[in-house]
Write a structure and sequence with these properties.
Elements: E1 4-7, H1 13-24, E2 28-32, H2 37-51, E3 55-58, H3 65-79, E4 84-87, H4 102-130, E5 133-138, H5 151-170, E6 176-183, H6 189-202, H7 206-214, H8 226-236, E7 248-251
Parallel strand pairs: 1-2, 1-4, 2-3, 4-5, 5-6, 6-7
Helix pairs in contact: 1-8, 3-4, 4-5, 6-7
Length: 258
């Protein structure tokens, strides 16, 4: 029987790349995220046609715990198992702490951190019943180090690493692993959207943000590739990674080596 993966925030960016990589490895996919419904259905159909797997879409709102938990139960019922969980959904806002809007803080914590708790709590009984499971949390280099003007995002991603470690310890004898991937800057819609805000916060041009802020952090001076993140996620979901658990794995062009 094929394994089934739920990937939050998988209609664009990193989540979309991970969904495609897992589909390529023969895993059924549950997509989740916002976007144009016709485009999402086209993405779902493309996965099925290209890789010969089944792909469903669930529009669960990652700020609503009941919808999140229902999504997990629906996936397990639809496919007969819930084997892989990739917590990727995320949003960003850039502003000084004393000017940071409260509603933005609440939304970032809910989507980037709390949603991972709710999906994990709902998925673990299914994984324990099967005696096998893989949880991959897409954190960030900002789960390991901080940057100015990103208080909510940095706090949430540090929290994701704590959740990862605790989950790993609680499931260490259950055939389940839980790890976090910590990407540096990837040219995704989320990164593109924060360039103007960062330029405004720092009083510099958008070109200077890319050159002197974003890529300055990465010694390789290049963005991390979406294909690289997909490949790492697939490896962590393989039997070859069964002894890797509780790890926070940087894929950041050397950023956090400094």
């Amino acid at each position: 029987m094929r394994k089934t993966a739920v990937i939050t925030g998988s209609t664009s960016g990193i989540g979309k790349a991970v969904a495609e990589a897992l589909a390529d490895s023969g895993v059924n996919i549950v997509l989740n995220g916002f976007g144009d419904l016709d485009e999402i259905q086209s993405q779902r159909a493309d996965l099925e046609q290209k890789y010969g797997i089944q792909a469903h879409y669930d529009a669960a709102d990652m700020t609503k715990p009941d919808e999140i938990r229902t999504m997990i139960e629906t996936a397990a019922t639809t496919f007969g198992s819930l084997d892989i969980l990739v917590n990727n959904a995320g949003i960003q806002h850039v502003a000084p702490i004393d000017e940071f809007p409260t509603n933005k803080w609440d939304a970032i914590i809910a989507i980037n951190l709390s949603s991972a708790f709710h999906t994990t709590a709902a998925a673990l009984p299914h994984m324990r019943s099967a005696g096998w499971g893989r949880i991959v949390n897409i954190a960030s280099a900002h789960g390991l180090v901080a940057s100015p003007f990103k208080s909510a995002y940095v706090a949430a991603k540090h929290g994701v690493l704590g959740l990862t470690k605790t989950t790993a310890l609680e499931t260490a004898q259950d055939g389940i692993t839980c790890n976090a991937i910590c990407p540096g800057y990837v040219r995704t819609p989320l990164v593109e959207a924060q360039i103007p805000d960062t330029a405004k916060a720092r009083g510099i041009t958008e070109e200077e943000v890319v050159r002197d802020v974003i890529l300055a952090a990465q010694p390789t001076k290049s963005f991390v590739g979406l294909d690289e993140l997909g490949a790492l996620a697939v490896f962590l979901c393989s039997d070859g990674a069964k002894s890797i658990t509780g790890a926070s794995l940087p894929i950041d062009g050397g950023w956090t080596a400094k």
